[in-house]
Amino acid sequence: MDTGISTSVPERTRRGINPKTKHKLKLFALMTPFMALLIAFNYVPLFGWVYAFFNYIPGAPLSQMEFAGLSYFKTIFAGGSELIPVLRNTLVLGFLIVITIPVPAIFAILLNEMRSKTLSKIVQTVSTLPYFLSYVLIFAVMFFLFSNDSGLVNTLLHRFRPDSPSVNPMASSTWAWGFQTLLHLIKTSGFNAIIYIAAIAGIDREQYDAAEVDGAGRFQRIWHVTVPGIVPTLFVLLVLSIANVLTASGFDQYYVFTNPLVADKIDVIDTYSYTIGITQNNYAFATAIGMSKSLVSILILFAANFLSKIVRGTSLF
Amino acid sequence: MIHKKLTLFDGVMNVVSVVLIIVFLFPFYYMLVYSLSDSQMISRHLSFVPIGFTFQNYVDILNSPEIVKAFIVSAMRAVIGTVITLICCTSVAYFVTKKELPMRKTMYRLIVMTMYLSAGIIPWYITMMKYGLKNNFLLYILPSAVSAYFIILIKTYIESIPSSLEESASVDGAGILVILVRIIFPLCLPIIAAVTVFSAVNQWNSWWDNMMLVFKPNLKTLQYALYQYLQMASPRITSIQHAGELLNRVPPNANTIKITISMVTIIPIFVVYPFMQKYFINGIMLGAVKG
User: What's the pLDDT tens digit per position in B1-12?
Assistant: First the structure.
């Protein structure tokens, strides 16, 4: 029995295994099933990249598929006629997300400046809500606001100006990019503002007092104390959004909001490779697209990280 | 205090705030009004309070076995998925803080790298088929069980706990699993609460795994069911309307059906949102500290 004194582990050891080794082995054994899950769902699918080099036949073993070499990649990088608008849409939507990175930061500063803390808290609560709704639900809400026959906005509009044409940004090719970016902002700004509010809370109060003593007005305090305090956070989010430029807002949003009127503006790499792969069954080409996207994204991530190191001396990793 | 007197700026800010709150909340309010009104009356008269107040629309929706089943599937995936994710992520986060773990650095790198790596839709699709996860409830649970972001959040939190607490327990002869369950888990409750919120909401909101790989009607999620109903001229809508006609009633119109299903999907989030707010703000702040 255990005497209760000291590090009594050695007595329990059998067959001469060092207790330290045993402890290590136990930890490793406990970790194994979780690592197996992680590898199975994140790394094993990478082997699927091999399908980009073969003419895929569903159900057949790889050995029976015809080797296609780099032909699918050649199609991509030669800029197939279908791919050019897809790439343009992806880059435009991704770029719009990158340049709107300051929006949640400005929002956070304004929330922080509000005199009424109760009102500020309510705005924060309400603006964070869309982050927790799926794009299907966001679509549902937009549908009830803008649909031509029964949407709230158009019903109101026609009540006051019966002859005016219906307003429906979901069906407008001209506004498609702007509208999708706006939706992305509505969904994420409140949530991202919390990150900046945390950064602002971390700024030393004495800096504000010192600025006031030096005669700085309210806006000067914001510009010279608050803004420098949140720039590091802004930079991290900027680097991440640049790295994500080829994903833009993600498959969900563009897939849900697509319709024949806007499809040529919001078909991005992810939705396009879904159509090619799942709808048209061209697995090899879709895999080649996905693989090129992943590899280019990693290159962009390293480049953005490297630039951040040069410009600000800080980096993500 | 720095601020002394109310300025024009403050006034403008307060007005903008109130407008913002109304713009964000009014659509949901209007949808609620619409779903609680008589379908024929509200479609002809614009009204901001329920007209012909009725729960009949909800009764019609909940009489559709498809929606009830989908609700149960979504709730199950949220509960089971979150419990499994919590068990996996807390365990992994604790184990990787242990200096004695062999290949610790390599393992942690493998975990973090998953945040930047993606195989793409088709390789993922083919792999899931090979695992036999097509038409399988486990497809909703297993892929997100070990998640890098949650592990990083929990690991950061564990590292902030004084190690003396853990050492005293291990001197008392407690094994690593006992320490994990009895000491680490209770101490981590604040961050675990945040992870619970994120995971449960993710699960409730997911639909594209359903769209890609699950075709059994019994395993359809509420989000995907809603997506299908929202598509124009969906045959599903006529089936609910038809059920109404059989009872010699004027059936609800398509918009009322779409709005009511949306409300059924939103209400659970609205109900838990006020309670969970504190926890996810905690989680984001902790994540922000880490950068």
Answer: 445 566 888 889
User: Quick check: is A39 in a domain?
Assistant: no
Q: What is the pLDDT of residue B291?
A: 41
- CB contact under 8 Å between B27 and A287, yes or no, is no
> A5-19, A48-62, B138-152: which has the highest mean pLDDT?
B138-152
Residue A3: predicted pLDDT: 44
CA separation for the pair A270, B132 (Å, rounded): 24
Q: Is the pLDDT of residue A170 over 50?
A: yes
Confidence (pLDDT) at A156: 86
Q: Which CATH superfamily is domain B56-290 in?
A: MetI-like (1.10.3720.10)
Contact assignment for B101 to A24 by CB distance below 8 Å: yes
Is the CB of A273 less than 8 angstroms away from the CB of B98? no
Residue B111 and residue A38: Cβ atoms within 8 Å?
yes
Listed by start position, the domains of chain B span 56-290
Across the interface, do A38 and B13 touch by the CB < 8 Å criterion?
no
Rounded mean pLDDT of chain A? Answer: 87
Interface test with B, best of A133, A157, A294 (most B CBs within 10 A): A133
Q: Could you list the residue range(s) of the whole structural domain that residue A175 is in?
A: 83-312
Lowest-confidence pick of A79-88, A102-111, B229-238:
B229-238
In a domain, A33, yes or no: no
Our count of domains for chain A comes to 1
Query: pLDDT of A32-79, one tens digit each?
Result: 999 999 999 999 999 989 888 888 777 777 777 778 778 788 877 776
Q: At A112, which CATH number?
A: 1.10.3720.10
Regarding an ipTM greater than 0.95, the answer is: no
Chain A residue with minimal CA distance to B96?
A31
- Chosen for mutation from A8, A11, A136 (greatest number of chain B CBs closer than 10 Å) is A136
A280 in any annotated domain: yes
Residues of chain A contacting residue B275, judged by C-beta atoms under 8 Å apart: none
Q: Is A26 part of a structural domain of the chain?
A: no
